[in-house]
Amino acid sequence: MRILIIHGPNLNLLGKREADVYGTKTLDEINKLLKQLAKKLKVELDIRQSNHEGEIVDLIQNSKKYAALVINPAAYTHTSIAIRDAIAAVEIPTVEVHLSNIHKREEFRHKSLIAPVSHGQISGFGYESYLLGLRAAVSIAENIVEN
Ligand code: DQA
């Protein structure tokens, strides 16, 4: 089973970026933890980061070979109809993740355009959100296989 992880814009700056909100772990450190967990769960991972909306749309359009998608769309969560439509088009089981609890922050972050096309959303557990997201994605994909 292969899972795709997509990190959206500015997440390449993790560790240096608003550490009080997003934590001190770098993206490389988070990716290492994801790979460790993937090994334990016996799944393969591909991990991508992009600051560009169109590039994220391309990644999603080409994601048909994956059993599930874990995505932190970052700021595009709140603005991108294109990313939402791409997820709806490929019908890949999707878990939306956020490091911070977007519902506890500024009002403009409360709305996710991605949530209605996702299986579910994990928000507010720091880097653990990604690990929980990967576990959720594997569970969803396994159920789909069994069904
Ligand atoms: C974020 C929350 C978004 O509102 C923000 O624009 C981000 C990161 C998070 O992981 O908490 O860049 O997706």
Indicate the radius of gyration in whole angstroms. 14 Å
Kindly state the percentage of residues in helix.
25-40%
Helix-strand pattern, N to C?
Answer: EHHEHEHEEH
Number of domains: 1
List keywords for this structure.
5-stranded parallel beta sheet, single chain, binds 1,3,4-trihydroxy-5-OXO-cyclohexanecarboxylic acid, about 20% strand, 5 helices
Which helices and strands, and how do they pair?
Layout: E1 2-7, H1 19-22, H2 27-41, E2 44-49, H3 53-61, E3 68-72, H4 81-90, E4 94-98, E5 120-123, H5 128-146
Parallel strand pairs: 1-2, 1-3, 3-4, 4-5
This protein binds 1,3,4-trihydroxy-5-OXO-cyclohexanecarboxylic acid (DQA).
The site of 1,3,4-trihydroxy-5-OXO-cyclohexanecarboxylic acid has 10 residues, from loops.
Short description:
The protein is of the alpha/beta class. The chain is 39% helix and 18% strand.
Structure description:
Helix 3 packs parallel to helix 4 (81-90). The chain is globular, with a radius of gyration of 14 Å. It has one domain: Rossmann fold (3-Layer(aba) Sandwich). The model has no long low-confidence stretch (mean pLDDT 95). Helix content is 39%, strand content 18%. The protein is an alpha/beta fold. It contains five helices and five strands; from the N terminus they run E-H-H-E-H-E-H-E-E-H. The relative contact order is 0.21. The structure holds 1,3,4-trihydroxy-5-OXO-cyclohexanecarboxylic acid (DQA). 1,3,4-trihydroxy-5-OXO-cyclohexanecarboxylic acid is lined by residues 10, 72, 74-75, 77, 98-100, 102, 109.
